[in-house]
Amino acid sequence: MARKLKSDKVLFLATLLLLCLSVVMVYSASAQIALERFRQPAYLFLTKQLLWMALGVALMAIVMKVDYRTYRQPVFFWSLAAVVVLALVAVLFSPPTKGASRWFSLGGIGIQPSEMAKLAAVVFIAAVLERRAHRINDLGYSMPPIALVLGVMVALVYVEPDFGTAMAIMLIAAVMIFAAGLSYAYLVTLTLTAGPVIAILLLRTPYRRERLQAFLDPWSDPLHQGFQIIQSWIAIGSGGLWGRGLMSSVQKLFYLPEPHTDFIYSVIAEELGLLGATGVLLCFCVIAWRGFRTAVTAPDAFGALLAVGLTTMIVAQALLNMSVVLGLLPTKGIPLPLVSAGGSSLVINLVGVGVLLNVSQQASAAT
Question: I want to staple 330 with a disulfide (CB 3.0 to 4.6 A). Which of 68, 107, 215, 217 is the partner?
């Protein structure tokens, strides 16, 4: 009799809690925007979120049933990388939105290829490293395929422009390569080399320099570059310990920019207080714990690297979003995974959770 596979119920529960929070907070943060700015029903963004959530949960349920070892086949991970690269090229020819070409429409549905690039990068890096990890410190052997594909993806995402997602992909890759056993000496050298390059990329563009200045001193330009972080601080401070109460945020009323997407954590802190904001942080801590635990118990190197990459993809983005909202990092348009309104990010993260759950299933079968 075949042994029944067991999914990680704790990981699934943490994900479910964040999805439930998303339903409530997206409606709370977006109702007035839908009414006043778009002249649409108050539930406009909630309806879209529920539709994307239904698609994401359906895909999560499907990939939970697919043995993750299917993705290690060269025809799969090379094809996935090729499709994503073509999508990243295609999006550059789409009409720009707010000065960036990050989305294109497919059958009336907005697609953001840079979100797909994160998932494709995780699968590709895991598959290549599994084959070459025995000579991980021979960079001429282990790194060329990763450097080629990752370099193309990051460059295309950067020119959209989407500096934050490009750096997120690089961070995911660095964590996975470190987990595969790369020598500390190489990591230190890479960090010291990448630092000046990132600084040049930040300082060579006027609007990025302005954001950096606003990060260092938001009160120097409180009505322009410093406006976002100042309004976020007001929202967080107004929430206190218990919060103003659900639907009672003041800052979401056209003070906070994008309160239902990039700054939804500010609305959570204002309406649900320190306790609610801490609860969200704890959910992501649980995802990190269970994800890295899955990596440790995975039956093979491919599963372990997949788990490390997918966990980093979700948790690192959450920490980046919270850091921006709290003023610990310069302002950047990064949604809060599984919570913020948005289609591509939500679906890709739910697919990532589904793959993680499958790895956990296979780990339970191996013990």
Answer: 215
